[in-house]
Design goal:
Number of strands: 2
InterPro entries: RHH_dom, RHH_sf
Protein name: Intracellular proteinase I
CATH class: Mainly Alpha
Strand content: 5-15%
Distance between the termini: 28 Å
Largest sheet: 2 strands, antiparallel
Order of helices and strands: HEEHHHH
Domain Ribbon-helix-helix: 16-83
CATH superfamily: protein bp1543
Pfam family, one: RHH_4
Length: 128
């Protein structure tokens, strides 16, 4: 099992730092190449560059009054959730349908249900 992860292309977990301007302030974000690729894919769906996507996520998280003390972690979780939705068949990687057009409320509700089901499925009960 570990071979699947260990023998993957090492370029995927190498980090890269990108600079961007948010509200006139230059900031840097350091992510593994794998996550930069996923962000590019998400942005592509909505006709946005990676910088535009990150800026949009930043502003929308501020509007929602989220406490994002670690914005980079938030971006990684966004990528993981996107890939989870693809794996569950909710989104297609081959479509260029903007994510915002996919019935967000229904997707969030179903995602929460699947998350709870996974936790039940993958939680080990103490053996007697």
């Amino acid at each position: 099992m570990c071979q699947l992860f260990i023998e993957a292309e090492s370029e995927r977990w190498l980090s890269r730092t990108k600079s961007l301007r948010i509200e006139g302030v230059v900031t840097s974000i350091r992510l593994e190449n794998f996550f930069w690729d996923v962000l590019a894919e998400i942005g592509f769906r909505d006709d946005m560059s990676v910088n535009q996507l990150i800026t949009k996520l930043y502003f929308e998280s501020q509007e929602a009054e989220l406490d994002l003390s670690n914005f980079t972690s938030f971006l990684r979780v966004c990528c993981a959730r996107y890939l989870s939705l693809v794996a569950d068949g909710v989104l297609s990687r081959c479509e260029k349908t903007p994510i915002k057009k996919n019935g967000i409320d229904i997707i969030l509700s179903q995602e929460n249900q699947r998350t709870l089901a996974r936790r039940r499925c993958f939680t080990r009960e103490p053996s007697i």
